[in-house]
């Protein structure tokens, strides 16, 4: 092999490796059990099985499986078989869900949304009609601020209130005053004494 041919082959190899250092495509297949996926790129080209990069993997660790069709980027040292998938690229089939620079939004495939709007200081979570929410905090939960519940409330243990409780008619304190002060007409037509056992 002469020198020029050797240089030509080396140059082609360098060009091939450079072209595979950053590859943009879409998720073609996903294997959640092994945390790997394949990426479709170019005309009829698909990578081998590659790991996708999670957000964190230390003391704080995240799990978020990419979706088939999701836009991604594969980075490598030039050998695509050793590449890693970087999730997240907007494109036609998966456009940006907002253009508001003050909004942080996560929209899920079932339509659920979790968002925070930093200009309005509003945190919001909206689930589909059949959605359920479970919050487990055995050490306790504290709400600071007025709380409105638009729906039924089921409590399995005692309810304690430091202040009065009011329904659409009157407060429990008013009911207590009515009960403690009420009397009846006795057998002789005279009012009886108020109840001995006060509320």
Automatic annotation (TrEMBL):
Residues 23-90 form the Gp5/Type VI secretion system Vgr protein OB-fold domain. Residues 173-199 are annotated as: Disordered. Residues 189-199 have a biased composition (Polar residues). Residues 173-185 have a biased composition (Basic and acidic residues). It holds the Pfam family Phage_base_V. This is Gp5/Type VI secretion system Vgr protein OB-fold domain-containing protein. It comes from Endozoicomonas montiporae.
């Amino acid at each position: 092999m002469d020198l020029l041919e050797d240089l030509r082959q080396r140059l082609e190899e360098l060009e091939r490796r450079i072209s595979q250092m950053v590859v943009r495509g879409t998720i073609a297949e996903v294997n959640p059990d092994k945390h790997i996926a394949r990426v479709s790129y170019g005309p009829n080209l698909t990578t081998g099985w590659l790991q996708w990069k999670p957000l964190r993997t230390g003391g704080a660790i995240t799990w978020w499986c990419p979706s088939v069709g999701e836009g991604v980027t594969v980075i490598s040292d030039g050998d695509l078989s050793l590449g890693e998938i970087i999730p997240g690229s907007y494109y036609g089939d998966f456009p940006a869900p907002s253009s508001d620079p003050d909004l942080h939004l996560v929209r899920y495939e079932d339509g659920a949304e979790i968002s925070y709007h930093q200009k309005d200081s509003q945190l919001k979570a909206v689930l589909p009609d059949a959605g359920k929410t479970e919050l487990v905090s055995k050490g306790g939960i504290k709400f600071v601020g007025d709380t409105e519940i638009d729906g039924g409330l089921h409590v399995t243990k005692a309810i304690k209130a430091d202040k009065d409780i009011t329904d659409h008619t009157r407060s429990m304190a008013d009911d207590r005053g009515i009960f403690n002060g009420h009397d009846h007409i006795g057998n002789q037509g005279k009012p009886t004494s108020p109840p001995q056992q006060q509320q």
